[in-house]
Amino acid sequence: MADHTTERVIPVTPMPAATKTARPGQDSAVYLTEVLSELNQGAAFLDQLRLDEIAAVRRAAVTRTYAAGERVFLQGDRHTGIYVLETGRVRTYYAGPSGREITLAYWTAGHFVGGPEVFGGGLHVWSANAVEPSRLIFLPGATVRSLALQIPAFALCLIEGLVAKGRCYSALVQMLGTRSASERLAQLLLILAQLDGGGAEGRMVVHRRITHEQLAGIIGATRQWVTSTLARFQAMGIIRIERGSVVIERPDRL
After folding, report:
1. Which of 32, 180, 228, 231 has a Cα at 20 to 30 A from 122?
2. Taking the C-alpha atoms of 89, 53, 10 and 118 in order, what is their torsion angle to the nearest 10 degrees?
3. What is the pLDDT of residues 38-57, one digit of tens each?
4. Among 125, 106, 107, residue whose Cα is nearest residue 115
């Protein structure tokens, strides 16, 4: 595993802007949900702060950069604080006793990871790693508590971010408990196609380069099952698999 670099953050500049609702493009969080507009809630984590308040947060933070595949934190490790994404993508996932993993979400710029113990203490109940080269700012738990006491707007941002995380994991539990694996895969394809914003004449296109293994991790299935189910969808005329994309010919049948 590559060593991440660390440097003290000084610049007084706003956090990267991010929309509160999902929109076409590569910058949206991705997880299983019934409501597309919920995907990017919490992305504008610190946007409500004044410049002087952002400056106070940044003075207390440390920048950490991660290579693709590098671990941010590990399930079972002690909580030490939260990480706010500035660039890149981070995957959070849970590993069962058997070693089988399920992806909780892919997070993008503006979101934070490291909850629910935002003030530190306790153990991480899931893991996180960088999907691509990523830059995060780290806020130690004691610092998060101090900022919440000193800056009411920061405390509100924190609460709203936790609400968004609660919605995310609640949606995942509901989808896993009430939909079949085929239905979860169909919903995920629709989510990805709507985020990509492609398609015409009633068709939708998934342009993202997402592997069968990654699809399987999100819906709680195996890579082999995803491959065979996509082939079945294609045989039924619902989708057409092309090089680098999946064309959804019949969204109504998904």
Report:
1. 32
2. -50
3. 888 877 778 889 999 999 99
4. 125
- In 35-131, beta strands by DSSP E: 62-66, 71-73, 81-87, 90-95, 101-107, 112-113, 127-130
Looking at the DSSP bridge assignments, the partners of residue 226 are none
Q: Residue 178, CB half-sphere, CA atoms under 13 Å: how many?
A: 10
pTM of this structure: 0.85
Tell me the per-residue pLDDT of 65-91, one tens digit each, with 9 for 90 and over: 999 999 999 999 999 999 999 999 999
List C-alpha distances in Å: 165 to 134, 183, 220, 253. 20, 23, 19, 30
Amino acid at 138: F
- In this structure, the chain runs to a length of 254
